[in-house]
Specification:
With 82 residues, this protein is an alpha+beta fold. It has one domain (23-80). It is built from three helices and two strands; from the N terminus they run H-H-H-E-E. It has helices at residues 23-35, 43-52, 56-64, and strands spanning 67-72, 75-80. A two-stranded antiparallel sheet has the order 1-2. Strand 1 and strand 2 (75-80) form a beta hairpin. Helix 1 packs across helix 3 (56-64). The longest helix has 13 residues, at 23-35. The chain is elongated, with a radius of gyration of 16 Å. The two termini are 26 Å apart.
Length: 82
Amino acid sequence: MPGVSGDEEPRPKEKPTSIQVPAEVLKGLEAVRQSGLTNMLDRPRVAFLAEEMGFSEAATWIRAHRIVVLTENDAFSVRVNG
């Protein structure tokens, strides 16, 4: 069975994919993050809240892109998810 004996070589780490995020989308993401109403890893909820807060462009963008938004030290990092 492949992978059972540990004979497989480890896969090389994939380079992170860089994507351009429009400024208006970042504003919406920041508004949701600062609200503290959801975990930023919950994409559907983030999109819903962005829409509710008046950031329809951000909500549309989040729904159209398979991403995970990570925050660290008040900065956004966007990781493409699958």
